[in-house]
Amino acid sequence: MLSPADSKNLICLYFASSDTEFEIKTRSCNKHLLLVANNPVACACFFDFMVNLFIKHVLGVNSDHSGLYGDTSGYYGTVKQQGHLTLHLHMLIWIKGSLSPDEVKRHLSDPTSDFKQCLIEYLENVHVGDFLTCLK
């Protein structure tokens, strides 16, 4: 999920302002929020700008380098509006050379393959959850 913080980003604040030149201005938090809230078009332009940067530089689409996750062969995203009216993106990414869902199923079903154990070890290493408690 990609969710750039528009009310804190100088580029979005520039899009939302009436300034003709980009200039770093010190404003109060309330002025930031009002500027962004009063110009939803600027926020949408900022979101589009950030998503296009992500697609080009992180995924490597239409650029001279591979993406962070490998060579991207395709992507699909949907944009949703959050409760406080900011936009965020959910995206599926297809990586060249990766296994298809059918291939994953075949490897998981094969009793002679160690794929299932390797996948479980991988998932246990990347998905960590902690439960914090407060003792009084």
Fold topology:
Layout: H1 10-16, H2 29-37, H3 40-58, E1 72-81, E2 87-95, H4 101-109, H5 115-126
Helix pairs in contact: 1-3
Written description of the protein model:
- With 136 residues, the chain is an alpha+beta fold.
- The protein has a domain at 6-96.
- It is built from 5 helices and 2 strands.
- Strands 1-2 form a two-stranded antiparallel ribbon.
- Strand 1 (72-81) and strand 2 (87-95) form a beta hairpin.
- It is elongated and about 65 Å long.
- The mean pLDDT is 81.
Please outline what is shown here.
It is built from five helices and two strands; from the N terminus they run H-H-H-E-E-H-H.
Bin the helical content. Answer: 40-55%
Poorly predicted runs? none
The largest sheet is: 2 strands, antiparallel
- Termini separation (Å)? 36 Å
Query: Mean of the pLDDT scores?
Result: 81
Order of helical and strand elements: HHHEEHH
Structural class: alpha+beta
Main-sheet strand order equals 1-2
Overall spatial form: elongated
What fraction of the residues are assigned to beta strands by DSSP? 5-15%
What's the number of extended β-strand segments?
Answer: 2
The total of helices stands at: 5
Q: How large, in whole angstroms, is the Cα Rg?
A: 21 Å
Question: What are the salient characteristics of this protein?
Answer:
2 strands; 136 residues; 41% helix; two-stranded antiparallel ribbon
